[in-house]
Amino acid sequence: MLKRPAIYLLFPVALAMIVWLGLGHIRRAKAGGFATRFTEALNLRSSAELHRLVYSPPFLNDKSPVERDLLILDLLATEVSAEGMAILIRDGDFGSVLKLFPAEAPGWCQAFGVKAADCDAFRLQRGELTAELVLHRQSDASYRVLRCNDIRQLANPASSP
């Protein structure tokens, strides 16, 4: 008689774990899909699309909108490639920016005026190279790029430090 109530208690716990793990995979898949779309917009040099997908770095605030868009395109082109992004999405760790970058996340998020709790990230460490993609979750369940670094170098390890 005591075994049945234990089984009834285990079922909701097991179901909650399955749902929790599944939601993490769904969020990673959405973030990966967004990252691919972001890379495609960058390859097309679509400044209008990138303007919607990327936060402008604070150090560009004094530039004209056209100049800012061109600088963002050039900066991103040195940091991101489709091959590197595919490697980061496939092999990188994914999770809360606070979990993956505990020391850096508060400063990064504060610089853009967003809450770190609302940000996810991909991180991949290869030797001394750390590829980073930090994404801010928007209210419509989409993302916006907050930070990216050394993603291009994943596809070409010879050019990494």
In short:
This protein is of the alpha+beta class.
Number of domains: 1
Mean pLDDT: 82
Q: Helical element count?
A: 7
Sheet with the most strands? 4 strands, antiparallel
Q: How much of the polypeptide forms β-strand, as a percent range?
A: 15-25%
What class, by secondary structure content? Answer: alpha+beta
For the largest beta sheet, what order do the strands appear in spatially?
1-2-3-4
**Which shape, going by the Cα principal axes?**
globular
Give, in order, the helices and strands. Answer: HHHHEHHEEEH
Care to count the β-strands?
4
C-alpha-based Rg, rounded: 19 Å
Protein described:
This protein is an alpha+beta fold and 161 residues long. The chain has one domain. 55% of the residues lie in helices and 17% in strands. Strands 1-2-3-4 form a 4-stranded antiparallel sheet, with helices on both faces. The termini are far apart.
Layout of strands and helices, then pairs:
Layout: H1 3-43, H2 47-53, H3 65-79, H4 82-91, E1 93-96, H5 97-100, H6 105-112, E2 119-126, E3 129-137, E4 143-149, H7 152-155
Antiparallel strand pairs: 1-2, 2-3, 3-4
Helix pairs in contact: 1-4, 2-3
Main features:
161 residues, alpha+beta, four-stranded antiparallel beta sheet, 7 helices, 4 strands, globular
